[in-house]
Every structure is written in structure tokens, then in C-alpha cells.
Amino acid sequence: MKHGASSKNYWHGLLAVVLAALLALAACAPGSDAASTSDAVSTEGAGTLETIKAADVLRVGTAGDYQPMSYLDPDTGTYVGFDAELAQDLAKSLGVEVEWVKTSWPTLMDDTLAGEFDVAICGITVTDERKEQALMSNGYLENGKTVLCRAEDADKYTSLEAINKPEVRVMENPGGLNEKFARENLPDATLIIHDVNQEIPGLVAEGEADVMITEVMEAGYYVGQDSRLAAPLIYEPFTHGQLGVLIPKGSDDLLAYVNEFLETEQSSGRIDELADEYIYRYVDEELDQAA
């Protein structure tokens, strides 16, 4: 099946699994001629993993606006970044293709609960709130909230107290943990909500806002791309957390598989390889600029 296979094939695969399960139940029903030979029909593994394999597709939810994790390149129409490659690795390990499913930060959990995709992989922080609503894998990459600002203001915005002032304009995209963090920790600052996440660093650089609260990897990436920007607290973030894979409840077999997959990616050095390619080289550039 080609990359980007349609959801039609997914549902055909799902139907095949459901029919197999119904046949197995009928075979085991009292009075059935096939009851004595029920071992000939097995539903073992007929969960999310089996459905994915039957459809030959792993549906991956992504916002596609988060450099350098998962970003939809407008020039090529393909998803690029650390998590984009991680998703491809996961699909390859399953022997299937990736079908990208567009989601957004405001609708991420609703889309997950609605079963719009099998997994979401796009720089998603593991939180207790998310674990209460859905399944989350073990963490595979450290992250934390930090400051992105203009280089000329690098000495000014070095604490929450310095940012939490009415004259300081903080710009965030809607619906994600960055907006939540800003609302909870910067109540006196002027909060500006901007729909397109990847535009915010440029708007800060141009003076349309003063600060963006974002993750360490995103801050490091944009500083490496634009000399007008700085991340003065990149090595002293406000929070410490882990990125994980978000999975709909009921997909326990898939969760177990994903955790084993991530452990293999860690032990093989693949996570470090992706981190060096997409994250640390930008953080290193930031360190060189700060030195």
C-alpha cells in the first residue's frame, strides 16, 4: 500500500477483524456444530494491533506545526522532524504504512477519544490529565517550558517575575500546554493568542510580541534559524517533563507494543540519532551564541 493510504482501507480491515471475531463467537455458542472444534478459529490478538495490520495502515495524528518535532513542509507536502521519523519507524516495525491524520492542539484529545487515529505523535507532553482521559506511552524525550524572545531582550526575560507584567506581550497558539502554562503562571502579562504556531517566533522577532513560552527543543530550533531570537533559559527551563505517544483508551495491546518499540529505539541509539539530527545541533548553536 502506498504512503498516505485512505481510511477506506482501514475500515475494510476493521470489518474483516470484526467478522472474524463474530465467526469465532458463533463457533463457540452452545449447540453449535463447530463448538467442539473451536480451537480451529482463534481471536487471539484481534485488538488494535491486528486491526492496524489487517488495514496495512498506521493512522498517525499530528498537528504538523511543531518544529523540529513534526512539521508539514508546505513546499513538499510531507511531514518532517523527529516525531515524523519516529512515526515512520513505528509503522515500519509493524510492517505497515503511515497515514497522516491532521489534528490540532485544541482538538487533540477530542480527536483521540473519537478514534480519529491510532496514535498521536507530535511533541505531546505526558501529563496526569492526559493519562486520565487516554493512554500515554512511556516518555522517550525530555522537554520543558522555556522562553523565546528577541536577542536584544535576552537579559530582560530571565524569570517568570520579569515576564509577568502588563507591558509584556506573551504570544501562544491556542489549546496546548503552552497557553495553559502562560495563563496559570503569567496572569498579569498581556496574552495574545495566535492560531498558527509556526508563525509566532517570527512575530516575536519582528516585535509583534515580546515572549513566546515554548518547549526547549522548539526554542533551540528557532534560535538556530533566526539570529534575531534568543532563548536565555534554554538550559534552565521552568518545567521538566517527557514527550510520549498518545493512544485512545482500549488500545492496550498497542500501548504495550509502542512501549516495547520505544525501548528498542532507545537501546539501539535511534532516539539519540534523531535527537542529534533535529534538536541538539540547534541547542548547541544556541549555546555557542550565548557564550
Account of the 3D structure:
The chain is of the alpha+beta class and 291 residues long. Helix content is 42%, strand content 20%. It has helices at 7-28, 48-55, 82-94, 108-113, 128-133, 160-163, 177-185, 200-205, 216-225, 252-267, 270-290; strands at residues 57-62, 65-66, 70-72, 79-80, 97-102, 119-125, 135-136, 141-143, 145-150, 169-172, 190-193, 211-215, 229-230, 241-247. The strands form four sheets. Strands 1, 5, 6, 7, 8 and 14 form a six-stranded mixed β-sheet that branches. A hairpin with a 3-residue loop joins strand 2 and strand 3 (70-72). The chain starts with 6 loop residues before the first helix and ends with a helix.
Looking at this protein, list some descriptive labels:
291 residues, alpha+beta, 6-stranded mixed beta sheet, 3-stranded antiparallel beta sheet, 11 helices, disordered N terminus
Question: Short summary of the structure?
Answer:
With 291 residues, this protein is of the alpha+beta class.
Task: Describe the SSE topology.
Elements: H1 7-28, H2 48-55, E1 57-62, E2 65-66, E3 70-72, E4 79-80, H3 82-94, E5 97-102, H4 108-113, E6 119-125, H5 128-133, E7 135-136, E8 141-143, E9 145-150, H6 160-163, E10 169-172, H7 177-185, E11 190-193, H8 200-205, E12 211-215, H9 216-225, E13 229-230, E14 241-247, H10 252-267, H11 270-290
Parallel strand pairs: 1-5, 1-6, 10-11
Antiparallel strand pairs: 2-3, 3-4, 6-14, 7-14, 8-14, 9-12, 9-13
Helix pairs in contact: 1-2, 9-11
